Amino acid sequence: MDTTNRQFRGSLQRRMSVVTLCAILLPSAAGCVALYLHARHGIRKQIEKAEQDIRGEITKEIEHLEKRSRDDLVEVALVLAQETVDLEGAEAKSRINRLAGSFRRFPGISDLRIDMADGQELVPAEGPLSERFDHQGLLLYEIDRGGEVVGWVRILPDHGETNRHIAVRRAELETRVQEAYQWATEREAQYLMFTAMVFLGLVGCAISTASSFLRKFVLRRINALLAVCRRVAERDYDARADANGVDELSELGSNFNWMTQQVGHTHDRLETQVRHRTEELHRANSELRVALEEARQAARAKSEFLAVMSHELRTPLNGVLGMAQILQTSNLDDEQTELVEEISSSGGLLIRIINDILDFTKAGAGKIRLEEQEMDLEATIDEVMGVVGEKATEKDLPINVLYGEGVPARVIGDPLRLQQVLLNLLGNAVKFTAEGEVALQVTLETREGDDVALGFAIRDTGLGIPADKQADLFEPFTQADRGTTRNFGGTGLGLAISKSLVNLMGGDIEIESELGAGSVFRFQVILKAVSASATSRSELDGLRGLVVSGHPTTRQSLEMCLTRLGARVCGAGSIEEARRATGIDFVVGHFGRDDETIRTNIEALRSGLGTEILVVVVDRAHSVRPSYQGELGNGSAIMRPARRDPLIRALRSLVTGQPKQPKPVVLAPPVASNAPPPPADTPDDPNPFALVFGETTSSGFETAMESKSKTVAPPAKAAPRILPSRETVPPTGRESICVLVAEDNPVNRKVAQMMLQQIGFTVVLANDGAEAVDRFRQGDIDAVIMDCDMPRMDGFDATRYIRQTGPHGHRIPIIALTASAMPSDKDRCLESGMDDMLAKPVRTETLEETITHWLDVKSQA
Length: 861
Fold this sequence. Notes:
- The protein is about 55% helix and about 15% strand.
């Protein structure tokens, strides 16, 4: 503060001094300049007068010289003229010439000549050119004899001496003038120095006077006011400035005192308020800490509750669904089969609800983690279309997928989360659409390097959503109205979870809907495109196909699919239009929804085209009946929606010319689990329906699709599919593989035992972790299925013990089979030494696939 005040005082003093100095300096400078200019003007006048005097003196002297020289010439001319007048005889002429010669040597004469009036040249000129006597400076004097001009004396003056004398005088003049100017310059410098000294003296006096005045009458009072300001800045609000007087500084001090007084009052009030607010803040912080701790405890309690509830629900559900799945492999009549399928369907619905609640909790806590793995985009979408297509087929509802230009075939992302979003949105579209169609459109929005933005649009012709309900649609536990839950079921969590997942994938969900006119759900995700590698020739290259369907979207979807497979495709909207096509190698078509229409259309098409390669897209799994199996002949049937892999398998089997191997149709409804669904081209495809009839004669593919089964499951009477019994599965050679199952729940232990035995493994049972360790010590164990929560010794400790005591270089696979499905549970399993984790309830196919995978890893190690 002191430094600031000193700077302020110095600045103020300097500024006021400058103002005062300027006020004195300007008139003083003007007076000094005027004095200097006046002195200079007087000196100049003196120099000019001296110069004029010198020049006048020299001019008079020159005129005198010139006059004297002329008088001398006239006197010479007079003498010559007198001598010439009395001239008689030759001697007189000679004497004139001598006299003229002597005059020629006279300093002022250059030449002379005497001419007589009778033309006689008495005295000739010496110079070669007589014309020079015509010069303007020639002196001509008449010779007068008794009043008569008898001749002329011509004298050419010589001005050289005069000129030399004039030049000398002029040089003297210039010297005197220069001396005068030098004297004037010195005088000017003296006057200038004198003026500057006078000026500086005046300025010094002015500065001294102004500074003294400022210090005495202004700065002293300002400094006193600054001292008071410093005291006020140090919170001494009782300090007062000197306000005595009637000038501006006195008024400033009075106002400053009033302001200080107000600041003091305000400071007192603020201190009181701050003290009260601080006390309130302390109370609020204490309450907040208590509330925060309560919230954390509530969050922990909620997470623990969800984990426990999930565990407790999954444990019996694993027994229920496992037993139901095993029952499906036994010989049941139609009614029993339908009851078992209802059990599986209800259990699957309950598992999906549990998974939705867990996903919603993880999304709210920000604990959803996205995986990054390479995936076949079309196959990934086809798996979802297969699952959703079952419900759409039951409702006679066409459902199709359309791909835009430039959509990459393979991308890197999280396929399970992408499928979860698509399954939710497509499932809702099918659920709320009674008639019309459902379509999924995939487009390439933008591409920057390897990053691609893919757009997905799900369109339906269902109920539509009112505009006032759309804003709340993505809130948890929210649906369009209460009747929606009553009529269609659901928790209201699906869209909220989907929105969170899409946001994690770099996009957002938008909706366009009108009540009674259907809805469009759009979302965008950011994925990484996989660079296309060199591939072999496409299987349908060179073949010409015909797509027949009266439904435009279905026809467009089939055309896009076959075009991407390399075929040249044309479309027809009716049988009549299709029969006019020529040069067709194969036909893919949707020929109706009832048996009679399908049979009639197949007959009409075969008679018109003549091709035997025919793939019929049917609406229901039970639609291929003996009523038109004969018309199919050398043809196949696949269920709508027609997906890439079932379609290409059917076409491949038809054009290879090899006998078709019947394929068991595994149609048990999928049970939710943490394991990924099987690939679309595996025998456990969610929607395989490829019943093949007749023989083939054409060829066009390099290899044919091999079936893993030798029997065909009998057609079911409805969309639910039947799992073939293990007796129909060819020998696997797995009896030598011994799997240890550690499970404390008797029902789940029995389910795991029957599933593993059905796969073909030898099974050894343990009731807890301690028994599992004892049995492992006995040897001959190839893999372990380990529950986590067990009495005496849990699965984590048992796994750690097995890893520590197991033989080096011989790591057996240990797979957790637990009802705990939280992300932290899988981390605990991996940290304890387990290789993988499966959440209950588990499907036989998932269990077989996981064990086989880790046995292969073990054999390659």
